[in-house]
Known about the structure:
Blueprint: H1 3-8, E1 34-41, H2 45-57, E2 63-66, E3 82-83, H3 91-97, H4 102-122, E4 134-138, H5 141-156, E5 161-164, H6 166-172, E6 180-184, E7 190-191, H7 194-207, E8 212-214, E9 219-225, E10 229-234, E11 237-246, H8 256-261, E12 263-272, H9 277-283, E13 293-295, E14 301-305, E15 311-315, H10 335-348, E16 357-367, E17 374-378, E18 383-387, H11 393-407, H12 419-422, H13 433-450, H14 457-465
Parallel strand pairs: 1-2, 1-11, 2-8, 4-13, 11-18
Antiparallel strand pairs: 3-7, 4-6, 5-6, 9-10, 10-11, 12-15, 12-16, 13-14, 14-15, 17-18
Amino acid sequence: MQKHLIALKDAIPRPLWHDPEIMPEQLPPLESCETCELLIVGGGFTGLWAAMQAKERKPDIDIIIIEQTFVGDGASGRCGGFLNTSVAHGETNMEAQFPGEAEQLHELGTQNMKEFIETLERYNIDARYEQTGETEVALDPESALRQYDNYLSLKEEGEDVVWFDKDAIREQVNSPTFYSAIWYRDGQDGVIDPARLCWGLKDVLVNQLGVRIYEGTKLIKVKPLGTDRMRASCEGGVINSDKVLMATNAFTSSIGKIRRSVLPVWDYQISTEPLTDEQLDKIGWGKVSRHALGDFTNMFHYFRLTKDNRITWGGGGAVRYYFNNGIDMKYMNAEKRYEQLAKEFFQMFPQLDDIKFSNKWGGIIASSTRFCMVPGVAFDGRMAWSVGYTGHGVGATRFGARIGLELLGYDPTDVINMQFVTKKSLPWAPEPFRWLGVRLTQMALVRADKNGGKRGLWLQFLDKLGLGFTC
């Protein structure tokens, strides 16, 4: 049996973060008719942060959160836990999608991250946050040259970045595939345990701030009730509210505008067992800095160390869109994807030939055509949403929650007049064109990576339409 298959043989099909020994007890489902001022649909990052900020703005507000399964079960508790300051998926995407607003969005992202960290400190939420910055590694000489040009431009703009040539980056993290790297070390970017973040917010909301959370509660439909109320029909009862915030992200929504604005893309990860001191010595990772890493490629891997020195490894070519917006949990049973990830792991770290993988899991990224959050409002301001974070949701969800609240009329600011909020997102094409377009684009991105980053005709065409992934 091949090395990567042996290493993967005993991996548990469960997110690393969902350790049964630390998971909180699930709260009871809705079993009656209730009323509240604000109903939040979805117990992930967006919904939890919305409740937190609503309570900070209006302490006496009556809030209910409903979650179909349990808090942290969706993308929020299945991601890699990379915390990024950007609220619009990077400087390049901000300039391309929202001309003239990049500087303001950068400031808003910095403010959002500052308040994010302050909230963890204020409520003593142990999300295992580490301020590592972000490190991007080039995997071939051509990419290293392009990366160095990027580095020079960033330095000229005054960014706090560090350049590592081939020898220098291999002293930081030793892989024979690394040719260079840029370390973005300013701000508060880093890594967290995403499930602990969800559960920490849940605990504060329920036990300190008086928010009612019903887990195991599926929304059937939501519609207006008269001219000033909303009615949400759930499997266990009915909730009448003044306002509704839809925080469902990639999961199928009964609201057409939400459903057409997001594409559910499955991303897969694996995690090693905790590395021994000897194994850590082989790669040198953590001796100088505990870098949070990603490839300088289109179909990039992302990988990091956890508090107990496991390596989580995800992304790359294992990302998949399933025909007709497939979101069923059966897609987590993707052995070929896990095998691909394990094989690619050993290509990057061949010296870790004795490593074993403890966990394997999948989660759904909600991608939008503008590659960042899509806000919206309906029913005369009684319903709002923030969805489609395209893989940057750990930090941006807090900002998305803020936008959703302001669109509902809770202390609105001039931010909701920015084109970031008012500009309509191009909806995804219907099937089968959606699936064909995604597959064509994925294959084109793989070809570009094999060709030193050179974008072919299909990607150039998408770039002209503003649909080429530019970050």
